[in-house]
Design a protein that fits this description.
The protein is mostly helical. The chain has one domain: Farnesyl Diphosphate Synthase, CATH 1.10.600. It is 65% helix and 1% strand. Strand 1 and strand 2 form a beta hairpin. Helix 3 crosses helix 7, helix 10 packs across helix 11 and helix 14 packs antiparallel against helix 15. The longest helix is centred in the C-terminal third of the chain and has 28 residues. The structure holds geranylgeranyl diphosphate (GRG). The site of geranylgeranyl diphosphate (GRG) has 21 residues, from helix 5, helix 9, helix 10 and helix 11.
């Protein structure tokens, strides 16, 4: 069967979506209103980008009116709550710089956001970080109960795989690469490994490079996936994908450090989640102190910019996001 002849089937029964399947297919064929040939000096407005990502997540989320309503409500609760959406933004901005800004890039980025949200729900569970608040509201397990939270996380993960395997407007090899890559990102060589170390090395005497390697697994892998998925749908070659891996790892490390700084210096009211949670965790901040951690993150971002400068496509949109993040989170 050729790629073109494959039926569109994301594995989600039509009654589980907010709009009927036919309309959803039409919607997914329709380019976003923002879609236009990328103009080289024109970097998408980040608030606007966040708003179209939010709208797309709304389209992807199951309706709470269909069974299992409680699980669907929990998915909507976690997924549509105000996250920063930095991962789908990375996908969109990579694809945009490489000449593509459409539903395929949006699907790729939102698949990462689905996995990220699923991981937050698990991370917050009593057996893991035992958190109370996330994204400005009670954690999913505190609002819906533990079993529903776990089921909602599994459903979001599967939605992500289904979404990647049915992305329109990319060839089947690209879809296959996306799905295979996501399996690696989620599995025991990726997020699961990072979380296992995060939980079991709490009192361990790690050095900075060991903490970096943990953070690469815990946070870096989804940053790498975000940029590489955007690059894959835009048809970037392996050399650029390799550079994006380096960029994603560096940005992910800096992002995790900023998150650790929020844990020691932030407040629930502004962070929207519990702070002072890291306790005995070996973090860059715990090892090096806030000032050194901040300076180190700045250096990682500088290195990330240098990687972007070597890429063969327009990386100005990604560089602008790095600058925006640095201004907001590290100064
Ligand atoms: C099987 C999906 C899966 C996961 C199992 C639980 C787990 C392993 C991993 C969790 C890893 C984790 C929570 C890493 C923290 C990464 C991080 C910096 C989260 C905060 O990201 P933000 O600030 O959050 O982007 P928002 O809410 O803005 O999206």
């Amino acid at each position: 069967m050729t790629d073109q002849s494959q039926a569109v089937n994301d594995g989600v029964p039509s009654e589980h979506t907010d709009i009927p399947t036919a309309a959803r297919r039409r919607a997914s064929k329709t380019k976003h209103p923002a879609a236009r040939p990328p103009a080289r000096d024109d970097i998408p407005n980040f608030d606007y980008l966040r708003s179209i990502i939010q709208r797309h997540l709304l389209l992807l989320a199951p309706t709470a009116r269909t069974r299992p309503q409680r699980v669907h409500s929990a998915i909507r609760y976690s997924l549509l709550a105000p996250g920063k959406r930095i991962r789908p933004m990375l996908s969109m901005l990579t694809a945009y710089g490489a000449g593509r800004f459409d539903t395929a890039a949006m699907d790729a980025g939102c698949a990462v956001e689905l996995v990220h949200t699923a991981s937050l729900v698990l991370d917050d569970l009593p057996s893991m970080d035992d958190a109370e608040y996330r994204r400005g509201q009670l954690c999913a397990h505190r609002r819906f109960g533990e079993s529903t939270a776990i089921l909602s996380s599994i459903a979001m993960l599967n939605r992500a795989f289904g979404l990647l395997s049915s992305i329109e407007g990319v060839d089947y090899r690209t879809r296959n690469r996306l799905v295979t890559a996501l399996a690696g990102v989620v599995g025991s060589a990726g997020l699961v490994a990072g979380q296992e170390r995060d939980l079991n090395e709490r009192n361990a005497d790690l050095n900075l490079s060991e903490v970096d390697s943990l953070n690469r697994l815990k946070t870096g892998v989804l940053f790498v996936a975000s940029v590489q998925f955007g690059g894959l749908v835009a048809g970037l070659d392996d050399e650029d994908l390799g550079r994006l891996q380096a960029f994603g790892e560096l940005f992910g490390l800096a992002f995790q450090t900023a998150d650790d700084i929020v844990d020691v210096q932030g407040a629930l009211s502004t962070a929207g989640k519990d702070v002072k949670q890291d306790g005995a965790k070996p973090t860059v901040v715990a090892l090096a102190g806030v000032d050194t951690a901040r300076r180190r993150a700045g250096e990682q971002l500088q290195e990330a910019r240098e990687v972007l400068a070597d890429c063969s496509f327009d990386t100005a949109p990604l560089a602008a996001l790095v600058a925006d993040f640095e201004r907001r989170s590290l100064r």
